[in-house]
Write a structure and sequence with these properties.
Number of helices: 19
Strand order of the largest sheet: 6-8-9-10-7-11
Structural class: alpha/beta
Helix content: 40-55%
Radius of gyration: 40 Å
Largest sheet: 6 strands, mixed
Strand content: 5-15%
Distance between the termini: 58 Å
Bound molecules: adenosine-5'-diphosphate, magnesium ion, zinc ion
Number of strands: 16
Length: about 600
């Protein structure tokens, strides 16, 4: 039973008792009625004869039923016609004692039950309906109350020590902590601490965690609510909830008020296409009003988190509101190792596990991914019945989180296997030979997730800038799979769909956003202005002419065709290596990067 829904569970529990009691009563009644003596059924004439012979002790007449006992203690029952007297059968009081019962008396209990029970049932039903309706009423009355959860600093304390990496965000936020602890220090200098702190970063990078850590460090109450909880079915609820939430926080000052996923209500006003934007606007306005209304000494700090700062209303970002912005990035290699360390404290690692190496193989993972990964590794180990988590379990978990679980049960036909092996080796060989591609770590034709096979490249460093050369090499690698299929099998398959989609997206971005096409030149076309409908991107506005659009298409095509040509050049040159590796991959199903070094006699230069 869910304790979070007291009304419903209260209702069902009450109903359960009602039914139980009802069933109990029915059972009791049945028992009472059925505790009858064993009786022998005889005919009226048999009775008449027995009476004549003086064998009958006594009898009782209940309506048309005659019950009685013989002298030898056997009980009997028989029936007579209505409105006839037993005297007609020669049964008279001088031969046997006769008792005539009031016909209504015996059936009093059943009558009572049949009359009263329906009422009881109906009454009970109405009562429960009423009660649940009242519950709904109560809920309606409390709509305006915010549903924020209060995390008490005393229990469940999270501190900065639980957050790995993120040195700069922590530093910024420690100022907030300082202020909550000793505001006098700042006020003596006339400094005003920002009222609002906005945490910006991709999903799973620890924004929520960091906000909790601030509350834990400062030791103040922490009110947490997700922005989507402001919005309900009824108009006006959001604004009422905002008011209530701020009041609660003020009453508990010093306190931190945390609004998660702020973009759910903080989107630019007037940009909504759906009908709900009016409500969202009101809610947003109320937040702005409340933040302005804070007295400077109220010591309530509003923190909010979002992964879409680009869609936030500019009014939210004005000074005096969320004027302090803390950017949280995906963790780099060292930070990933630190995060892994935190999430493996309670897990028994084999002594030779190198978390740094695992961190290196999980480029692009967020903190949440890493946590998930550490958990997967523990599950894998437990399933294998081992007591310690090894590096192999961890890398297996990385692959699982990255590409979905292995699907060994999906059997590929021989032909599919050949196509997949050729395709993947096309990626691998191009990736291995081109200078700017990441080193190939593993090639597999065991299905994973939705992919039939995969080539796994590992970036040797975390990259912030990507050059045009790198993009070009990567495009060539993406097209290598399809190029190999064409070269070796003289055939195209659907296996390249994903590659083509990705390659086209990169090429479009190169041309439109990064100014990497000489013909388009240093202008950004389009950009990130999206039309938003129900939180989904519908399309993008274009701010350029049909003519330029045509040039963009030509340039994108040129980039991709050049990439394909380069991939083909590499593959033609290493055709024999491709054939040998294909045979090996078909036999072994998985190859590591070392196999490429061996067969291609080319070691990728380390950067
Ligand atoms: P966000 O709010 O940014 O989407 P969360 O704060 O909810 O992400 O992070 C999800 C989980 O990932 C956290 O509960 C935590 O276990 C883990 N995590 C994320 N970043 C870190 C980090 N820097 N250090 C430790 N754990 C982290
Ligand atoms: Mg979050
Ligand atoms: Zn591919």
């Amino acid at each position: 039973m869910n304790p979070l829904i007291p009304n419903r569970s209260g209702f069902s529990r009450g109903f359960f008792w009602f039914i139980t009691i009802f069933l109990g009563l029915t059972l009791l009644y049945n028992l009472a009625v059925s505790t009858r003596v064993e009786r022998e059924n005889i005919t009226l004439s048999e009775l008449s004869q027995a009476v004549q012979e003086g064998k009958v002790e006594r009898l009782a007449i209940k309506g048309n039923t005659i019950e009685g006992a013989f002298k030898d203690n056997r009980n009997f029952r028989t029936y007579k016609e209505a409105d006839t007297s037993i005297a007609e059968y020669g049964i008279t009081p001088d031969k046997v004692s006769i008792d005539v019962e009031n016909p209504d008396k015996g059936s009093l209990l059943p009558t009572l039950l049949t009359v009263i029970l329906p009422f009881l049932l109906l009454g009970g039903f109405i009562w429960f309906m009423f009660r649940s309706a009242q519950g709904a009423n109560m809920r309606a009355m409390s709509f305006g109350k915010s549903t924020a959860r209060l995390v008490n600093p005393a229990s469940n304390r999270i501190t900065f020590a639980d957050v790995a990496g993120l040195a700069e965000p922590k530093f910024e936020l420690s100022e907030v902590v300082e202020f909550l602890k000793s505001p006098e220090k700042f006020r003596a200098l006339g400094a005003e601490i920002p009222k609002g702190v906005l945490l910006i970063g991709p999903p799973g990078t620890g924004k929520t965690l960091l906000a909790k850590a601030v509350a834990g460090e400062a030791g103040v109450p922490f009110f947490s609510i997700s922005a989507s909880e402001f919005v309900e079915m009824f108009v006006g609820v959001g604004a009422a909830r905002v008011r209530d939430l701020f009041q609660k926080a003020k009453r508990n000052a010093p306190a931190i008020l945390f609004i998660d996923e702020l973009d759910a209500i903080g989107r630019m006003r007037g940009s909504g296409l759906g009908g709900s934007h009016d409500e969202r606007e009101q809610t947003l306005n109320q937040i702005l009003v409340e933040m302005d209304g804070f007295e400077t000494d109220s010591r309530v700090i509003v923190m909010a988190a979002t992964n879409r700062p680009d869609v936030l209303d500019s009014a939210l970002l004005r000074p005096g509101r969320f004027d302090r912005r803390v950017v949280i990035d995906l963790p780099d290699k060292n930070e990933r190792a630190d995060i892994l360390r935190i999430h493996t404290v309670k897990k028994p690692l084999a002594s030779n596990v190198d978390l740094q190496k695992v961190a290196a193989s999980s480029a692009g993972f967020s903190g949440a991914d890493l946590k998930n990964m550490a958990n997967e590794a523990a599950i894998l180990t437990a399933r294998a019945g081992r007591k310690q988590i090894t590096t192999k379990d961890l890398t297996e978990a990385v692959e699982k989180v990255m590409m979905g679980p292995e699907r060994r049960s999906r059997v590929l036909s021989e032909q599919e296997k050949v196509i997949t092996a050729t395709h993947e080796l096309g990626h691998a060989i191009v990736g291995h030979m081109l200078e700017h591609c990441d080193p190939v770590h593993k090639i597999s034709i065991i299905s994973r997730g939705t992919a039939l096979g995969y080539t796994w490249s590992l970036p040797s460093e975390d990259r912030r800038l990507i050059t045009r050369d790198k993009f070009n090499d990567e495009l060539a690698q993406m097209l290598g799979g399809r190029a190999a299929e064409k070269l070796i099998l003289n055939q195209y398959s659907t296996g390249a769909q994903n590659d083509l989609g990705q390659a086209t997206k990169i090429a479009r971005d190169m041309v439109r956003l990064y100014g990497m096409s000489e013909r388009i030149g240093p202008v950004a076309l389009g950009g990130r202005e999206e039309m938003v409908f129900l939180g989904r991107e519908l399309g993008e506005h274009t701010h350029y002419s049909e003519r330029v659009a045509a040039i963009v298409d030509e340039e994108v095509r040129a980039l991709i065709e050049a990439a394909q040509a380069r991939a083909l050049v590499v593959l033609r040159k290493h055709r024999t290596a491709l054939a040998r590796l294909t045979t090996r991959l078909l036999k072994e199903e998985v190859l590591d990067g070392g196999a490429l070094d061996e067969v291609l006699k080319h070691k990728k230069p380390k950067k």
